[in-house]
Amino acid sequence: MTPGLLPVPGTARGVRACFTTRAGGASTGPYASLNLGSSVGDDPASVRANRAALAGALGFDPERAVAMRQVHGAEVLRVGPDDGAGSFTGSLAGVADADACVTTAPGVALLAMGADCPVIVAWRRDGAGAAAIHAGWRGLVAGVVEAGIAAMGVPRGEVHAVVGPHVGPCCYPVDHALRARMAGSFGPQVVRGDAVDLGECAAVALERAGVPAVQQGRVVGCTSCDAARFFSYRRDGQATGRQAAVVILGGGA
Ligand SMILES: [Zn+2]
Question: What does pTM read for this prediction?
Answer without folding.
Answer: 0.98
